[in-house]
Amino acid sequence: LNLEMNRLRKLPRSFTECKTLKTILLSKNQLTEIEMFIGKLEKLEYIDASQNFLNLLPGSVPWLKELTHLSINGNAVPCLAFQPILNGHNDSKSCDQIDKESGTETNKLNADGVWQEFTDHKSGRRLYYNRKSGETSSTKPPIFWDKK
């Protein structure tokens, strides 16, 4: 299903009924989240959600057993959002490797280790990712320290 370049801001609920959908192309839209429908499409093998306004990786992605390709480049998804997918895999990449490849930089944690600061090099925006809630904010949370 090709929905590229349609200025979509959200996807209709009817997507959850497409149980046999294997490929969905969502790049170059205005999507801020795709969680609502992704987890219910168990046959998905290929998702391209690049160049949208996503700031979270869908929590259901690790449970999509058929998924072989996920493209989210050009979004502001912080490195730590990838940990549930990468943990336990021999080919796991470090946050530094992911940052380098995706054009982001995760460089600071606050004192309790919940908030992580990262910079999207494409937009130059500095964002903050809450590792507990999955929230991303442009407002700086209290007291940061360098991870080095």
Radius of gyration of CA atoms, rounded to a whole number:
16 Å
Helix content: 10-25%
Helix count, DSSP H or I runs of 4 or more residues: 3
Give the integer mean of the pLDDT values.
Answer: 69
Helix/strand-derived class?
alpha/beta
Q: Which CATH-level-2 architecture of the largest domain?
A: Alpha-Beta Horseshoe
Organism: Ditylum brightwellii
Protein name: Leucine-rich repeat-containing protein 51
Structure description:
This protein is of the alpha/beta class. It is 11% helix and 22% strand. The protein folds into two domains: 1-75, Leucine-rich repeat, LRR (right-handed beta-alpha superhelix) (Alpha-Beta Horseshoe); 78-148, no CATH class. It has helices at residues 35-38, 83-86, 95-102, and strands at 23-25, 46-48, 69-71, 104-110, 115-120, 125-130, 136-137, 144-146. The strands form two sheets. A five-stranded antiparallel beta sheet has the order 7-6-5-4-8, covered by helices on one side. The chain is globular and about 40 Å long. It comes from Ditylum brightwellii. This is Leucine-rich repeat-containing protein 51. InterPro entries: LRR-SigEffector_domain, LRR_dom_sf.
Summarize the structure.
By secondary structure, the chain is of the alpha/beta class. The protein is 11% helix and 22% strand.
Write the layout of secondary structure elements.
Elements: E1 23-25, H1 35-38, E2 46-48, E3 69-71, H2 83-86, H3 95-102, E4 104-110, E5 115-120, E6 125-130, E7 136-137, E8 144-146
Parallel strand pairs: 1-2, 2-3
Antiparallel strand pairs: 4-5, 4-8, 5-6, 6-7
